[in-house]
Amino acid sequence: MSLANRYADLLDTIRIRERALFFPLRIPNELELQARWFAGDFGKHFVSLAGDKIDIVQFGTWNREAGPDFRDAAIRINGSDPIRGCIELDVSDRSWETHGHATNPAFEETVLHVFIERSNREFFTRTRSNRNVSQVCIDPTVLPDAFSENVPLARPGRCQAPLKDLPEERVRSVLDAAAQFRLQQKCARIRNKIDNHGRDEALFQELAAALGYKENKLPFTLIAQRLPLNLLREKPDESEALLFGVAGFLETPDLDVYKRSTREYVRQLWDRWWPHRDAMQRMILPAKVWRMSGTRPVNHPQRRLAGLAMIAREWPSFRRCLSKAVHGDQPSPSFGVASTPTATVADFFNHLEHPFWNFHYTLTSGAASRKMALIGESRIAEILANVLFPFWLADDLEIWPAYAQLPARLSNRRLETGATRLFGNDSRRKQFLETVAHQQGLLQIYEDFCMQDNSDCAQCPFPEQMAKWT
Ligand code: SF4
Which range is least confidently modeled, 98-112, 202-216, 324-338, 392-406? Predict the structure, then answer.
């Protein structure tokens, strides 16, 4: 049995327990729900409230005009031929009425109404012409992870004591198993996304999310969904301006707020954005969706967005670099990733140049005295670990030997919390977290066990299962 399957068995011990009383920890907001729906995170097969089998054939595109959230979508009802139309996603079923969709002709083409909350009384979604629209209620607790999370403060858990006495090899084996399981989960999500949006778009969306970091994963995902790579590649001279415009970063019409060294660059962006602004009005992200505080200036979302623009512009050479990372210089059939793909990928990112963003932190900051990389080393490591390796796994490439070697560069609050819960002050704690794989394994265990536990460890099966792990 593979290690990932063994971890899945371990997880079954928790699934037979009752679902945690306090779940969900957080109801995602409407924009986040829509982004995750479009990404396919809720799946594509549902049963409507009327008991019909609903299959999503095509998620459609984000609607730029008045009307439902997604247009040009297609669904099947009970295996019918695809029915084309729009999909509306709301937090509550009643929003259809309270938002006035029931009388709005722009919602006439709606074929599916999706929501997470049902009201106490039965509610039918009807269009202005009184057509009944299928309703699907989705469950946010099935989401694999959240765009952002409130992590509880850490204290050592019950498994700290038994883990301390376990031989190092056994702890590493459990972390490997959980990491392989997590990789497979990620790979399944990516396959799903490839299925829904095609290979390049899926990769582009994942890269955008990685550039958003934890704080701005949502707006970056929305941008990549609303401005697909395909569209950006069709308008290479305007793509950067479109990205900044849709991000809402060009909403100040007064050039005087910018430093002199910046005005020329901003003027160029404006000139290219304004002809599209009216048509794209509905796509522009509200300022409140961005989290600017807490990010280091060098990681400011505007710099990251410029990085995304450059990746889109250099897409063919990015794809060539990925191929080289897998196959080496010789295009040959290969079933495994080269042992050190890192250098090839880092080389691509290190060569991304931007005359403005190499020297600026934000649109309003002054010029820096020295040149800064558009995408830094730790972000490249993150992209490799969380985007490219899972993509290669989705291609059925043997990635584990190279993945297991990736050194961990960063930690974060959730990891530290997990480490404290499981390892307490075990002197081996640091060495258990020296690789990306072990960090990811720890996160998986933390999410599957600690975050599902509502018994202060008493009912958690992990310590006992650990003792049996050979
Ligand atoms: S909830 Fe389970 S895995 Fe988490 S610290 Fe407690 S015993 Fe360990």
Answer: 324-338
Distance CA 117, CA 122 (A): 12
| Cα–Cα dist 145/227, whole Å | 24
Two tokens, residue 143: 């989401």
Which one-letter DSSP state was computed for residue 407?
Answer: B
Structure tokens at 462: 């992990």
The Cα–Cα gap between 202 and 195 comes to 9
Q: How far apart are CA 97 and CA 106, in angstroms?
A: 14
Q: Is 419 in the pocket of ligand 1 (CB under 6 A)?
A: no
pLDDT tens profile 177-187: 999 999 999 99
pLDDT grade for 245, boundaries at 50, 70 and 90: very high
Query: Which pLDDT band holds residue 333 (cuts at 50, 70, 90)?
Result: very low
- For residue 209, the tally of other CB atoms under 10 A from its CB is 24
Burial string for 87-100 (b: 16+ CB within 10 Å, else e) reads bbbbebbbbbeeee
- CA atoms in the 13 A half-sphere facing the CB of 235: 13
Instruction: Decide: 462 in ligand 1 pocket, CB within 6 A.
Output: yes
Does the pTM of the predicted model rise above 0.85?
no
Q: Which two tokens stand for residue 405?
A: 């070697």
Cα–Cα distance measured from residue 314 to residue 319, given in angstroms and rounded to the nearest whole number: 9
Per-residue buried b or exposed e for 407-430, using 16+ beta carbons within 10 Å of the residue's own CB:
ebeeeeebbebbbbbbbbebeebe
CA distances from 46 to 68, 75, 136, 188, 192 (A): 20, 11, 7, 18, 15
Provide the 3-class DSSP secondary structure of residue 458: coil
Cα 59 vs. chain centroid, distance in angstroms?
Answer: 17
Q: 């006992």: which residue's tokens?
A: 464
State whether the beta carbon of 450 lies less than 6 angstroms from ligand 1.
yes
Pocket test for ligand 1, best of 17, 417, 450, 466 (most atoms within 8 A of CB): 450
User: Is residue 107 within 6 Å of ligand 1 at its C-beta?
Assistant: no
Domains of the chain, by residue range, sit at: 30-142, 198-378
Residue-wise pLDDT for 344-353, tens only, equals: 899 999 999 9
Q: Where are the alpha helices (DSSP H) in 358-412?
A: 377-383, 389-394, 400-405
CA gap 391, 380 in Å, rounded: 15
